[in-house]
Amino acid sequence: MVDTLHRGVNEIHRGLFYVFLLIMFINAEINVTYITLGGHVEVNNYRYLYFIIMFTVYILIICSNATIMCLIIIHKNLHEPMYIFIAALLLNSVLLSTVIYPKLLIDFLSEKQIISYSACLFQVFLFYSLNSSEFLLLSAMAYDRYVSICKPLQYPTIMRKTTINILLVLAWLLPACQVSVPVIGRANAELCDLTLEGIFCNNSFNHLFCVSSTPFSVYGVIVLFNVVVFPVLFILFTYTKILIIAHRSCGDVRSKAAQTCLPHLLVLVNYFCLFSYDMAIVRLDTKFPKTARFVMTLQIIAYNPLCNPIIYGLKMKEISKHLKRLFGQSKQKCRH
């Protein structure tokens, strides 16, 4: 009898514990703040068309970038600093696309396009830290080209494996540390609007807060200079020096400068234009037509990750050779 009573009490305690857990879970679900992504246009009518187009783009991004990364990893003659930085840049493009595309594809098939506030903050953090890493990786590539062309005798000493590893770590770590400060600071901020004028979380989320924070605005400008403006100025300075030295040198140096520097400059110009648009669209806010904003946002997340492998695949001589061999072998296998 006592044993039965004891078992009954244990069962009651266990039942109460599960009820307590269920209540806690329900409260957690109730307390989650959801933000509506209001930048979608006619998603109910064209959801499958949007999904097919963007899913195809995402697959192309992964395949094209992964192909060149694999070529760089497999072939030993591509194990040079310049190609390692290219592989890092392409990896960064894939990571950045993965931050946006899976959620975007889910939203196209969903009845409601919503995201939790914590997930939105996390997406903002990843989006801008990886965006900023792109500029720092391009800066590292510019430095590598500067040493290679302007100081060729010192190149093996300066661009050692340790130097490359440090530059890669800093390119990803510095932006992450700087971008995390305002994101963490906004975690408990009061929201007065729950509709974001965009299809993913970006700078527009600053318009959701009840009070604009001056310290965070000032800090944001400092971060912008650190991870975008200064790297771009450094890149322009190094390539100007390279062009001056190449102009004074023989034809071989000029051709080397043109072959290796032109792709980097094309990527920089392309990326800077897209990044400037992302910043400008937030300032314009509601003045910009919703359809135009939607189309241009899709372009900003598609163009750069697709253009990078095309530019490096066509313009970089050694990568282009390996690509031709790869596709040449594929054609021969298909014929057999």
Could you please describe the fold and organization of this structure?
The chain crosses the membrane at residues 16-37, 49-74, 81-102, 114-143, 164-184, 216-240, 261-282, 294-314. This protein is mainly alpha-helical and 336 residues long. It has a single domain, classed as Rhopdopsin 7-helix transmembrane proteins. The protein is built from ten helices and three strands, in the order H-E-H-H-E-H-H-H-E-H-H-H-H. The chain has helices at 2-31, 43-74, 81-109, 117-150, 155-158, 161-185, 214-248, 251-284, 290-315, 317-335; strands at residues 34-37, 114-116, 195-196. A three-stranded mixed sheet has the order 2-1-3. The protein is globular and about 60 Å long. It starts with a helix and ends with a helix.
Layout of helices and strands:
Blueprint: H1 2-31, E1 34-37, H2 43-74, H3 81-109, E2 114-116, H4 117-150, H5 155-158, H6 161-185, E3 195-196, H7 214-248, H8 251-284, H9 290-315, H10 317-335
Helix pairs in contact: 2-3, 2-9, 3-4, 3-9, 4-6, 4-7, 4-8, 6-7, 7-8, 8-9, 9-10
InterPro entries: GPCR1_Superfamily_Member (IPR052921), GPCR_Rhodpsn (IPR000276), GPCR_Rhodpsn_7TM (IPR017452), Olfact_rcpt (IPR000725)
GO molecular function: G protein-coupled receptor activity; odorant binding; olfactory receptor activity
Transmembrane segments: 16-37, 49-74, 81-102, 114-143, 164-184, 216-240, 261-282, 294-314
